[in-house]
């Protein structure tokens, strides 16, 4: 059997994404001073486009009279028409292109091994290639990939003036090698010239499926093929997939995650070096992969920085950092997914206490662990707890043992001998770092510095310095957190083991993530980082934020099916309080769609959806499901009316009154209430308080006389306060400025602040 192999994208390839990437590297090189005297600025800055069009001109001019291929010299002859360039300059450009091609060669290991095996078996093997490059240069490229390849007979179209694509070059080989077509097997990647054309001649043709571009890569190249950074990044990613033959999880890590995380870590290390930061502490769990990337780059680039891993979490650090002051509890709860605190048991768990311990601080009806509480009720509960000095003092002492243990762990792990250190996180608003600063203030008096990929808020918190990589609020930004999972569960706390403080990790989630393919996913990221680190160092590649943003846009809004399923099914706990591990964005069931978009569109979605990101789940819907959702959103009332006529039942509608009234636990305010405000909102509150059998001992308004004439039971204005005994004064005024003015007037009368509640602010109480 006689064997032949194609060369480009079969036995060798390039570091760039496409062959034209070589021209982007050349254009970058032409900016050097040594070329400024030979070439005009026009040529140096437009070389990429000029080189492409020069080849088109050369082919049009020379491919006549049965000449099927041009040479590199003929291409540069065409380029010489731009400004009448001298021959010496054209020769130097041709040499530069040859050197660049050789320099960027990478071997395709799988096929090289196959050729080696055939040669060792004594089979006759030749190489056939359509190329304008000369045989000597191609042999040098082959030699760089694998030395023995340069000794194999080579047939190049530029030397024979015939191409494989026409079939004639195969006939040339047949004549030179004295071989019959039926006894010949050819391997190549091009469908037309390596498969269809040889098969027409009777040659057994086998197509090598070279690694295809993923949708995000193809889109980027269509718009930015002339960009050197795009060529190098996509080239690395594609070649890693080809040579390592990554599984699906590893390919996603290499192609989707690494191009986003690499620039962040590169920027972080550059900033750390510039600021004299020598120790970086990566906070679990988002810091797990980031530390792996940083360690590779620090070693590769020989940076004077060390990395460390710190086990911590919102749950482990926030409550222990509590300080006995107004506003602390509100701020902590407001940043811990309060919408998902729907029972007294969940409230106690969030506070890291028991329901029994909360009993003496809340009314009797809120003593049962399974008692359902609305979001408004939760706001009131936290408001009442905060106003009780006794509770604040008790809660502060309750957290003391935990706080001391956390502080001991931090002292054990963080070197605070100088200020040359910083923490590393992925995203957030900075509250956890503020809590960290409070925990460290007993043994470190400097500011706590933290690197963030993105921050949700602009924060100027005391004792905290933030270095924010991407100051942007992104839609579907929670997906970014799925890129940075870890192979262990959330840090729930700490314990002492062999006189050392060690973390207590939540069981289940880490194991589920590993089972999801996490180890392969991480290998893909590390493979990309190792390869791209050399490219960055060699070509001085700076951080390209537009490229990163396009990748993020792709993942968050237009992912392909494999990528969508991988991140959507990633095990994830939203609050850390979940009893079982759930997927990040599970597929919506028919019942989910009806509940969320038909029956309960104005209610908290968390009651009907157990995932983290509804929008990402919606991306998983098929065409029929999307149409169903859109139909419900447009025709919801019509559907409900038809249902009611058919079933003879009434579908309960979402309350028509204000959100500020919805679910208010009036009994929490006390048994005897003074209501201030008799406008539309005040009358609404009064009505629902009467419905709840709450005793309104006074109803006041500065325009009381007008309301009395309307038949409303308003008894006077603010001066009438104190004529009766009461438990609380509720200000029922939605206008913030007027409500605050009324509150100041009441305070000026000597009424204690803990007895005054502005209802219009209740449901905004935890909106930090």
- Beta-strand proportion: 5-15%
For the termini, the CA-CA separation is 75 Å
Structural class: alpha/beta
Tally of helical segments: 34
CATH architecture of the largest domain: 3-Layer(aba) Sandwich
Domains, number: 6
State the share of residues found in helices, binned by percent: 40-55%
CATH topology type of the largest domain: Rossmann fold
- Rg, rounded, reads 35 Å
Low-confidence stretches: 655-660
Mean pLDDT: 90
CATH class of the largest domain: Alpha Beta
Number of strands: 21
Q: Could you outline the blueprint of secondary structure elements for this entry?
A:
Blueprint: E1 2-5, E2 12-14, H1 21-29, H2 33-36, H3 41-45, H4 47-62, H5 72-79, H6 87-103, E3 105-107, H7 109-120, E4 124-129, H8 135-145, E5 154-156, H9 157-160, H10 168-177, E6 184-188, H11 191-201, E7 204-207, H12 215-224, H13 228-244, H14 248-275, E8 279-283, H15 287-301, E9 306-310, H16 314-317, H17 328-334, H18 344-351, H19 355-358, H20 375-387, H21 389-398, H22 400-413, E10 421-424, E11 427-428, H23 431-440, E12 448-455, E13 464-470, H24 478-483, E14 491-497, E15 500-505, H25 509-515, H26 518-539, H27 545-557, H28 561-568, E16 571-572, E17 582-583, H29 590-599, H30 614-618, H31 623-647, E18 672-676, H32 680-691, E19 695-700, H33 704-709, E20 728-731, H34 736-747, E21 756-758
Parallel strand pairs: 1-4, 1-6, 4-5, 6-7, 8-9, 8-10, 10-12, 11-12, 12-13, 18-19, 18-20, 20-21
Antiparallel strand pairs: 2-3, 14-15, 16-17
Helix pairs in contact: 1-4, 1-6, 4-5, 5-6, 6-8, 13-14, 13-26, 14-15, 14-26, 14-27, 15-26, 29-31
């Amino acid at each position: 059997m006689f064997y032949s192999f194609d060369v480009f994208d079969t036995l060798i390839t390039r570091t760039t994404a496409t062959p034209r990437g070589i021209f982007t590297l050349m254009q970058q090189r032409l900016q050097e001073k040594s070329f400024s005297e030979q070439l005009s600025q026009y040529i140096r800055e437009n070389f990429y486009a000029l080189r492409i069009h020069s080849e088109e001109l050369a082919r049009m001019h020379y491919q006549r009279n049965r000449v099927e291929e041009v040479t590199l010299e003929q291409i540069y002859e065409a380029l010489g028409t731009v400004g009448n360039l001298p021959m010496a300059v054209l020769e130097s450009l041709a040499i530069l292109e040859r050197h660049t091609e050789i320099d960027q060669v990478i071997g395709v290991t799988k096929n090289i091994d196959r050729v080696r095996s055939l040669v060792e078996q004594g089979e006759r093997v030749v190489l056939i290639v359509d190329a304008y490059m000369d045989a000597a240069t191609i042999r040098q490229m082959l030699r760089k990939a694998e030395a023995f390849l340069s000794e194999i007979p080579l047939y190049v179209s530029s030397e024979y003036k015939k191409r494989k694509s026409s079939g004639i070059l195969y006939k040339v080989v047949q004549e030179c090698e004295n071989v019959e077509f039926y006894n010949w097997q050819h391997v190549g990647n091009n469908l037309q010239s390596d498969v269809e054309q040889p098969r027409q001649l009777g040659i057994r043709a086998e197509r090598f499926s070279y690694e295809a571009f993923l949708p995000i890569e193809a889109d980027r190249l269509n718009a930015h093929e002339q960009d050197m950074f795009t060529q190098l990044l996509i080239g690395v990613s594609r070649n890693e997939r080809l040579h390592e033959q990554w599984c699906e999880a590893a390919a996603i890590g290499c192609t989707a995650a690494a191009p986003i995380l690499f620039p962040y870590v590169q920027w972080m290390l550059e900033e750390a070096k510039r600021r004299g930061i020598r120790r970086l502490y990566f906070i679990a769990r988002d810091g797990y992969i980031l530390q792996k990337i940083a360690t590779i780059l620090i070693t590769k680039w020989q940076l004077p920085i060390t990395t460390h891993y710190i086990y911590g979490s919102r749950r482990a650090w926030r409550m222990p950092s509590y300080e006995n002051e107004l506003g602390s509890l509100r701020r902590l709860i407001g940043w811990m997914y309060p919408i998902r605190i729907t029972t007294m048991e969940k409230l106690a768990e969030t506070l890291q206490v028991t329901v029994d311990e909360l009993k003496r601080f809340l009314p009797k009806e809120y003593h049962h662990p399974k008692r359902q509480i609305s979001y408004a009720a939760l706001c009131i509960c936290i408001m009442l707890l905060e106003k009780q000095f006794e509770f604040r003092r008790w809660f502060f002492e309750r957290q003391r043992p935990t706080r001391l243990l956390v502080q001991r762990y931090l002292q054990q792990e963080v070197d605070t001998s100088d200020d040359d250190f910083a923490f590393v996180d992925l995203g957030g608003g900075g509250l956890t770092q503020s809590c960290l600063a409070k925990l460290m203030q007993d043994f470190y008096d400097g500011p706590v510095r933290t690197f963030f990929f993105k921050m949700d808020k602009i924060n100027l918190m005391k004792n905290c310095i933030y270095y924010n990589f991407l100051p942007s609020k992104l839609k579907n930004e929670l997906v970014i957190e799925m890129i940075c999972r870890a192979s262990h569960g959330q840090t729930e706390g700490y314990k002492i083991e062999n006189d050392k403080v060690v973390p207590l990790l939540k069981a289940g989630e880490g194991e589920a993530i590993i089972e999801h393919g996490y180890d392969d996913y991480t290998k893909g990221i590390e493979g990309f980082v190792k390869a791209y680190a050399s490219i960055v160092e060699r070509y001085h590649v700076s951080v390209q934020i537009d490229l990163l943003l396009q990748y993020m846009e792709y993942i968050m809004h237009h992912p392909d099916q494999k990528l969508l399923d991988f991140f959507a099914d990633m095990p994830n706990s939203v609050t850390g309080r979940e009893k079982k591990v759930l997927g990040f964005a599970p597929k919506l069931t028919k019942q989910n769609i009806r509940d969320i978009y038909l029956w309960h569109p104005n209610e908290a979605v968390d009651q009907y959806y157990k995932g983290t990101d509804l929008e990402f789940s919606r991306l998983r819907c098929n065409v029929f499901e999307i149409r169903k959702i859109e139909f419900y959103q447009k025709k919801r009332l019509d559907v409900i009316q038809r249902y009611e006529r058919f079933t003879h039942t009434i579908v309960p509608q979402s309350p028509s009154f204000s959100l500020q009234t919805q679910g208010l636990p009036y009994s929490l305010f006390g048994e005897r209430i003074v209501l201030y405000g008799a406008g539309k909102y005040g009358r609404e509150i009064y009505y629902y308080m009467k419905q709840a059998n709450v005793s309104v001992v006074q109803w006041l308004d500065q325009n009381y006389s007008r309301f009395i004439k309307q038949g409303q039971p308003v008894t006077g204005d603010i001066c009438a306060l104190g004529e009766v005994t009461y438990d609380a004064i509720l200000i029922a005024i939605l206008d913030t400025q007027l409500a605050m003015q009324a509150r100041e007037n009441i305070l000026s009368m000597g009424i204690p602040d803990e007895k005054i509640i502005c209802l219009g602010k209740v449901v905004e109480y935890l909106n930090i």
